[in-house]
Amino acid sequence: MKKAFGRGYCKKYEEYICVDAVGELIRPNYVSDHFPIVLRQNGLRKIRFHDLRHSCASLLLANGVQMKLIQEWLGHSDISTTSNVYSHVDSESKKMSAEAIAKALSNELAEATAV
Asked: How many domains does the chain have?
């Protein structure tokens, strides 16, 4: 892009990685500011950029990733933060666990009464 813009290219930030097409620094909120545009252009419903973080954590948890690993992925310093925020997501897992215990107990009961 430097060649294309010639003297119009900003050389002040040449050592930076996150610059736009004309060499200007990309603002820290660039991604979150443009996220609604990307959603609209792709026919997706409006959500906050931060919601992607929650979706990621929820999907990891729903797919059996340990809470400790999710904590590290999200960068929470304390696992209680992760578990407090995402413990509600684990309700389906709890239901499945309860069903597995009920099945095991009913099988044990059936075997005991069959003897």
From this structure: 1
Quick check: helix, strand or coil at residue 46?
coil
Written in H, E and C, the secondary structure of 69-95 is HHHHHHCCCCHHHHHHHHHHHHHHHHH
pTM of the full predicted structure?
A: 0.56
Judge contact between 73 and 60, C-beta under 8 A. yes
Q: Comparing C-alpha atoms, which of 30, 17, 87 is closest to residue 58? A: 87
How confident is the model over 12-67, as pLDDT tens digits?
998 998 899 999 999 888 889 999 999 999 999 999 998 898 888 888 888 889 88
- For residue 33, being part of any structural domain is answered with yes
